[in-house]
């Protein structure tokens, strides 16, 4: 894997494409093919979510400190600092600031304030975009898909847009890390603490809401990332309806999953650790088992400067993030460590169906076990109604997922098989099986038909005198031959 392996995860901006360079950069005058510089909305949104979660966690930690809840305080500090540190490392790695003379930026990263300065830089670049012209641009070819028709265009990407793309890439990576290595366990912890202590703190409620928003945004980024990786030569354009559908899908899926785990943990605390560990280990070792089955090793290097040990560490971090995502929701991409891009680019409907079927069964088992072993705290809660609501919410999440792939996916016209094809195939199989069962005769009836087959054929055949004469001659000849043989 050459340096484009990290580039796969960075193909989340509007500039990522299959480039056809003409001598690297070309001096081109601004024209119709000049790309429009879009505002860094994703950068600002990711920064706001990061700061809001950091501040709300700090306020809640101070409340835990005052009340003497050492265990809740320690876990909250860990789930606040761990993703924050990874966020600083990711931003530093993407922008390659380690070997550059930028002491102020590095100091802010050490103070966990790196996203703020990066967001400020992106906004300054966007403000300068309309005031200066780029004399050197990158020429790249993109394919536009409109009403099923493909059209290729050359795009001239300026230096400002390339720099903004770097910021978008970095912040979209950090959004996924923040969501599934920090916000998800933080939300689970605070919901569990609320049920155990049987009261809701205002600071805890604020942190849970912000964490849920961060998780939904991270899952949304995973979906967009999966689309842009699989169709990297196309210009991706998502309609507002597609975003709404994905937000509802991901929100219901994650909220139901977290609630099921927390309810199960309140009834069988020790067993939930086993459930979480088994889930994590399964998804962590799944890409490595696939690689072992192919009898090959990881392809190339993740970065040219990395040793084999460094490459292994980076791949382990990839699989760690992949496992954490799949414990709570569908990751939308599947790892392939034997591929140069680390990602399977084909849409695997079988894996999607197996994941949601297995997750539905697992949630059903968790909710059922909670119902039978629940504590006295739920005496004033209608437990059957709550269990049914959770299952309905997860079913609705699956329904919105199917609606997205069927109607809202920007490249649904390129699918060889879509959702309705799979449903038609299942229905056709059921109908054919029913017809075979209805048309298959019983054993006794089949034997009767075999014995009476000649009589039925003779009765059904039309009468012809010539045929009867020929038949009589054949019978007479047959009798004479039998007499001679005797």
TrEMBL record:
It is found in: Membrane. It is a multi-pass membrane protein. The chain crosses the membrane at residues 41-61, 73-94, 106-126, 205-229, 271-289, 309-333, 353-373, 385-405. GO terms for cellular component: plasma membrane. Keywords: Membrane, Transmembrane, Transmembrane helix. Belongs to the XK family. This is XK-related protein. It comes from Oryzias latipes (Japanese rice fish). The lineage of its organism: Eukaryota, Metazoa, Chordata, Craniata, Vertebrata. The gene is XKRX.
